[in-house]
Write a structure and sequence with these properties.
The chain is α+β, with helices and mostly antiparallel strands. It has three domains: about 5-110; about 110-255, no CATH class; about 275-460, no CATH class. The chain contains 13 helices and 14 strands. Helix 4 (about 275-300) runs antiparallel to helix 5 (about 305-325). The longest helix has 27 residues, at about 275-300.
Length: about 475
């Protein structure tokens, strides 16, 4: 996805191959997929009347080197009519949501694949697959390489996730004087049958967040490809397609992380690749909002400390609600008390104030943030004891800070973390707390979690918060 390219070629609409237009296709993670044409697909008389730019659901093209490309969900963004009438010609620009490089598809419904492969940032360091062996005998050095055995996880409803490797060789000189060998880890995803590409997006994202949890920082999709088998003279031939689309946030250049700096790696999972991934996907069905909030705090590198703190607080509340419930009474049992409390509001209270009080009382059956945090600490007491020597003081600080940042009432300011450094420290500890919850969902034991908490604390050098 970080690969920037430019392809010159000829472009046309499905069923109109005789009307080909010269143009240039460009892609970057920042700008997305843009097609600049030396012409226009739409009727120019309509355009002169400014009745609107054209929309083409699909555009086909072939590059100068013969590569086939399909552009999906296209919309014309600009058209110039300079030189009409005259000797000039119109130009137009189109933006596409997705570029499929390697094949022509007649319509959106035909864009189906058997499998998808993704290369994520930090995946090679996280997996630490052994590609090369080196040996020296007398004056002869021997280097051998190959692909390690794939790790495969068979999950529910036909979903299969695999960790494999691929590579390339480049020989220079005759006789060869230099050989470049590159290997990289890839995640493969199959859904049990040929299906639309958009159905692969959820597992692609869940694996991305799983790796981010392990790596301890943002993980990006660097390359996305797909495979489908086609019949060629009674022989099944795999057809490879590279997929390009604009990510929600353009990936930045990231420093290489050593696996010792990560929260957990493939090696920490031992032979539990399949059960851990199954636990993660099963948990994501229940903890979807928690997972999304956690990933947002990693993806938003420029997020203000206040927003990071509040987002992590929301994530922990949501985790508790989904895993522990968290109601003093069932809603139906609370209703008599709710109606009694509402009826007790004095008549002299103005309507707007009455509405505000009624709304607050409506959810009076739910646990407070303080109790939710206390339940989480009780569940992971042994794991958290070294990083949180005084849970009561920590919880009190979090509650007071959340109340102040929510209402900015000066009465709540006393005891709250208000400066950037204090909020950063508090948010860092909240992140550790949330990660313990998520790692426990994956399947790590209490002993493993305790070691990981110690590793997190040593890596995130943050002074202990002083609770007055």
């Amino acid at each position: 996805m970080m690969e920037v390219f430019e392809h010159k070629g000829k472009w046309w609409l499905p069923g109109e191959e005789s009307n080909q237009i010269d143009g240039t296709l460009t892609y970057s993670p920042i700008d997305g997929v843009i097609l600049q044409l030396s012409g226009a697909f739409a009727d120019l008389s309509r355009a002169i009347g400014r009745q609107g730019l054209s929309t083409a659901r699909l555009i086909l093209g072939t590059t100068a080197s013969g590569t086939r490309i399909t552009l999906l969900s296209c919309a014309e963004t600009h058209r110039s009519l300079r030189g009409i009438p005259g000797d000039g010609y119109p130009t137009s620009s189109h933006r596409a949501e997705v570029a499929l490089v390697g094949s022509h598809f007649p319509d959106h419904e035909a864009v189906t694949f058997d499998a998808v492969r993704v290369h994520y940032s930090h995946l090679d360091s996280w997996a630490s697959l052994g590609y090369f062996d080196f040996a020296r005998e007398d004056d002869m050095a021997k280097i051998s390489y190959g692909s390690p055995e794939p790790r495969v996880a068979h999950l529910h409803e036909g979903l299969t996730v695999s960790l494999t490797s691929a590579g390339s060789e480049h020989w220079e000189g005759s006789p060869p004087r230099r050989v470049t060998i590159e290997r990289e880890a890839r995640i493969g995803i199959q859904l049990g049958e040929r299906t639309r590409f958009d159905r692969f997006l959820r597992p692609i994202r869940l694996i991305q967040i799983f790796l981010a949890l392990g790596v301890g920082t943002t993980v990006h999709q660097l390359k996305v490809g797909a495979t489908r088998e086609e019949m060629l003279e009674d022989v099944r031939v795999p057809q490879e397609v590279e997929i390009f689309y604009q990510p929600p946030r353009a990936p930045l250049q990231q420093e290489t992380l050593h696996h010792s700096e990560m929260t957990f790696t493939l090696a920490h999972m031992d032979d539990r690749f399949e059960p851990f991934l199954r636990n993660w996907f099963d948990s994501a069905d229940c903890l979807g909002p928690v997972v999304d909030l956690y990933f947002a705090t990693l993806a938003e590198s420029g997020m203000f400390a206040e927003h990071r703190f509040l987002t992590l607080t929301r994530a922990l509340e949501s985790f508790h609600r989904r895993r522990y419930g968290g109601q003093y009474l069932a809603p139906e049992h609370y209703q008599p008390a709710y109606h009694h409390l509402v009826s007790a509001i004095p008549d002299w209270v103005v309507p707007d104030h009455r509405d505000a009080l009624t709304t607050r009382l409506k959810y009076g059956y739910e646990y407070s943030l303080r109790k939710r945090l206390r339940d989480i600490f009780n569940a992971y007491e042994a794991v958290l004891s070294s990083a949180f020597p005084d849970p009561t003081a920590f919880i009190d600080k979090v509650v007071k800070t959340r109340n102040y940042l929510t209402h900015y009432d000066e009465d709540d300011r006393q005891g709250a973390a208000t400066c950037g450094l204090q909020l950063h420290r508090l948010a860092t500890q909240l992140r550790t707390l949330l990660e313990v919850c998520l790692l426990g969902e994956i399947g790590f034991t209490s002993e493993e979690l305790q070691m990981q908490v110690e590793r997190m604390s040593s890596r995130r050098v943050v002074e202990a918060i002083q609770y007055e």
